[in-house]
Structures are given as structure tokens and as C-alpha cells.
Amino acid sequence: MRDLAVTLAHGAGGKQTSELIDQVFKAHFANPALTADDAAVLTAPRGKMAMTTDGFIVSPSFFPGGNIGKLSICGTVNDLACMGARPLYLSCAFVIEEGFPMEKLEEIASAMEKTAKEAGVQIVSGDTKVAGKGQVDGVFITTTGVGEILEGVETSGAMAKPGDVVIVTGDVGRHGCTILLAREDFGIEADVTSDCAPLWGTVQDMLEVTKDIHVIRDATRGGVGTVLYEIAGQSGVGVQLDSTAVPVAPEVQGVCRMLGLEPLYLACEGRLVIVTPKEEADKVLEVLRKGKYSGNAAIIGEITAENPGRVIMTTEIGAQTVLPQPGGELLPRIC
Ligand code: MG
Hints:
Blueprint: H1 15-29, E1 49-56, E2 62-63, E3 66-67, H2 68-82, E4 85-97, H3 102-119, E5 122-131, E6 139-149, E7 165-168, H4 174-182, H5 200-209, E8 215-218, H6 223-235, E9 238-242, H7 250-259, E10 272-276, H8 278-289, E11 298-304, E12 311-314, E13 320-322
Parallel strand pairs: 4-5, 9-12
Antiparallel strand pairs: 1-6, 2-3, 4-6, 7-10, 7-11, 8-10, 9-11, 12-13
The structure holds magnesium ion (MG).
Magnesium ion binds at residues 79, 82, 217-218, 220.
């Protein structure tokens, strides 16, 4: 019979551990590379590869539009996609709190299966640890991903050039806003869902129309504002941002007004900031607007030689102001 909750015995490496792995993880992650051996045996990509890792501790672990499982695949797959890399393999390590409901763990594994399938990535190795009650909060997941960089693609935060166009692939701040509301600390009810999505398909479609993309970055923790500052710093350029062109869903805007928050600093988990030469911008925008997760893509600014390291914003009334530098952590445990 299936246990109702995770116990310390599930992490002890014996019979119950094998049962947990077989019944929950292998049941969802099965593929030829995922074996009972000590390491996965894989075929190396022919060209350059990208590798990245990320820990996920989001609280709550279930939220409108996703859960920690979906997020743990999207976060890593999207970081690979930002380098122009087709996601190939993932590993995942779970740290589970004793007493965590088995049903919830199953739901998390199922979301990971579905998201990995959509992204075309195989989960090839994993680890499960169980910590005593109160030693972790619910479940933490770390995923590591390896991808194959498409030939002829070179992206970096250091490659933005004056005259380039800045594109965002959809409305901003949904994930941060969703988590904030899900915590119920503010007593605000609004119909906001996370934008959490695997974006390799989005990047692949774009790279099919042009490989001349300078920067791709997913606007996760710290939001689009933080990413723009990172690009300005890495490339030694200025960013001229048209604040009126930044897409924000009305419900997110409403919550931000109530709480005095700036949507540009709220996390996204399914949005990319793209910097591309001006000549490529129209076709990039056209292909993005046909995409499943980028229908609201918009040009939000351009790269300048002036104001290196800074983001200058044109406001609703046409004034020029410096977008304040992102401060400390707005919300802990957002991803
Ligand atoms: Mg990233």
C-alpha cells in the first residue's frame, strides 16, 4: 500500500527509498537514460554545450499557474534557452520534509514530467533526501541542465550594442505578483496566475528566423528592471526604456498600485528580455507574436552609448528619469 506521507525511512536508502523512487519518480520520469546505475551514460553533443544549475525553494510550493515542480524544470530549461541551447538532459535533487503529503509529491513529479516533455528534455538522474520535520519547509528541488548550443548562435549579457532594440516577450511581473498574493499576507484577492512556462520553443522559433541575437535573458528574480541593469553593466551601455511600452496585465497593475510596487521589479518565470540589432527587430517581433508564450511581445526600449551602466526611463508624461537601481530582495522565496 502507498504511504500517505513521506517519512524519514523514504530517505534512508533502503526498501522504502526504492519504493518512493519507483512509484513516484520513475513512474513519471522514465526514459532510457534514467537507470538504476550510479550515473547516467549520455551521448555528448557535437558542438558547444551549456550547463546550468538552480535551487528552487518557492513558498507556497503550489500557486496559480504552477507548482515547484513545473518551476524547477522551467527555470533551468529557460537558462539554457537563453544561451541558445537546446535542453538535452536534466538532473534533479529533492530535499523533502518528513510528513510531506505523498499525493502532493506525486503532483509535483507529474508537473515535472509534463513540462520536461514540452521542453524536449530528459530527466536522467536524481537524488532524494528526507529531512526531519521543521528542518526544511515542504520540498526543495535543485535541477541541473545540459544543453546543446545551436550552431552560429552566440548570446551574452555583454553583447548589447548601441542602436540595438530591447524586446520583452510578454506582460511582466505575473509570477512575483502571484506568489505575493498566494501568501495571503496582504488580504488582497486578484485573479493573477504565474507566467511560469518552458521557453525553449520560443527561443528556437526566433533562432529560425535569425541567429543575430545579442542577448537573451529570462527575467526571473528581480524582474525586467534587474535584467536591464545587468545588461547595461555587463555591456557597458545605457538602456533607454519607454515605460509606457512595457506590457503589464491590468490585474497585476492593480495589485502593484495598491501595494506601491513597480511591476518592472517583480519576477517573471516565462518572460525573456531580448536585445537584437534594429534590422532584425521586426522579424523577431513577428515570430514572437505567433508563439504560445510570447503573443504580447513588445519593443520596450533601445541600447545607447550614453549613460553607460544606467537605465533611463521615459515616463507616461514624457519625462526622463533614471530607473532606480534594484534594491534588496523584494520578496524572499519567490523561486
Ligand atoms: Mg536566468
